[in-house]
Amino acid sequence: MPFLDARKLAQHAKIETDVCIVGAGAAGITLARELCGQPLRVLLLESGGFSFSHRPQLLYRGENVGMETFSTSRSRYRMFGGSTYRWAGQSCPMSELDFEQRDWIPDSGWPFNRDHLEPYYRRAQSVCKLGDHCYEPSAWSSADKLVLPVDSTRLTTRIYQFGYPLEFGRTYRDELTRSTNVDVYLHANVVDIEMAQHAESVKSLQVATFNGRRCSVTAKAFILATGGIENPRLLLASNRVAKAGIGNQYDLVGRYYMDHPYFHTGYYEPAQECYDRSLHVIEDYSRTGSEQRVVAGFTLGEELLRAEGLNSCAIYFVRRPNYKSLPEYFAPGNKSFIRLLDVLKHNELPDGQFRRHIRNIIGGFKDVRVSLRRHLIELIRRRQRISLRAVMEPRPMRDSRITLSDRRDHFGMPRVRVDWKLHPKDKDGIVRVHTELQREIESRRLGRLVVDLSENETGWPNSITGVAHHMGTTRMHRDPKKGVVDANCRVHGTTNLYIAGSSVFPTASFAHPTFTIVALAIRLADHLRSEIHS
Questions:
Q1: Can you tell me the mean pLDDT for 93-117?
Q2: Is-contact 72 61, C-beta < 8 A?
Q3: Cis peptide before 111, with omega less than 30 degrees from 0?
Q4: Which pTM does this prediction carry?
Q5: Most C-beta atoms within 10 A of its C-beta, which of 47, 303, 397, 488?
Q6: Where are the beta strands (DSSP E) in 171-310?
Q7: Cross-strand bridge partners of residue 270
Q8: Vertex 16, ends 11 and 21: CA angle to 5°?
Q9: Which domains does the chain have, with CATH numbers?
């Protein structure tokens, strides 16, 4: 039986294995599955259990000193399956341009191109429970699901697929249960990485449980797969040998933190009924994957991106209640009201900004009242619009970063301080894609696009929100002076420490990261097999 409870281990137990993976989310579970049946002993450590629990979740709490659009305590899930527990399944491979070193985007460029990752994307297709590996819009278009015609030199139509079922913990639990070479320890919290004398290799991981057990794990290879905030936290906090933190000899761990800013920026009124049910509309997120397998988005054409030096952005449509498409819904007071309701609805933890939310609600009570009144009216007389949902590629910024706080968690580990920054030029891409789409829709008489990009005090559209796509904090680069991990995701300067997940992304694209996370995890598993066998 590969599922074990770390709380039942003997005090100061010593566990030996070949490969130790920390974190059972999309990356960790994919790695474990890829190594199933191999002549290797594999150990997968997970902080949580099979279901959500507040106690391990509290370990995520931290300070947010940058863009106040998300909470550290609710943006990831500490349980078997990780954040696939709340993943919508939306998947799209990155484009060729995303991997290039772009002169107009400093610190861009991956150590390999898109073609190199293609075979791993194909293998990730089945892991993410997607359809055929086909992202050509014409292949998905039909009489009742049209692709709206636009100028392909100005706008490109990109296909997203939806996976189903979504939760890796439930989907792959039985498969790991049957494994003869993979063991999973639940309720196992890694609190320290013990390095050799000169910090060139990991000697062991120190593991703690809430009932006071302590144990250590030794392995030939260690992989951190705990997410874009927890990966740098572990590296920075494990500083007994490497005083600045593991892999941080050039002060890069935690820097270049990125998230995808999302916006609801207006609505679309189709000119004809066939455009109303186009391929571009998400009808209902609760039915994506099971019923709706794809959605098409609009992005700026590559020629336009190059000519004007823009970041990539995408727009697709979501059918939503009318009141959720209007400006008052995204006003600060109503956003705070929704946030507090969300805490109650999902039995989640408050994000430490309760007083700010109350002030926003009091100061913006008029917007709350208007939005509530519209909501109540629409419960009786249902009305929906096709809302515009936009996502933006953020430029990597060195000063957007994760650092350690003076505060400590239950196990004495420093909590995180998140300082998320966005470059002012990032706004150019989001404005341009709306301008182009509005021009195309109206000039081709496809309907009317009502765009609202009105800004709040931060200088960004009112509806801006971070969606917890934590990326970039242990970025990949061949040069150790420019990246934390090399092209094989091994931490520079170490022989046996690797990192999986979106923290290794040098740039973010606009595409949801999970599909690429899985592709990179498959690639890393292949590398580990050959590395350890040799």
A1: 97
A2: yes
A3: no
A4: 0.94
A5: 47
A6: 182-186, 189-195, 202-208, 214-218, 221-224, 261-270, 281-282, 294-300
A7: 447
A8: 100
A9: 1-128+163-259+468-534 (3.50.50.60), 131-161+261-392+423-459 (no CATH)
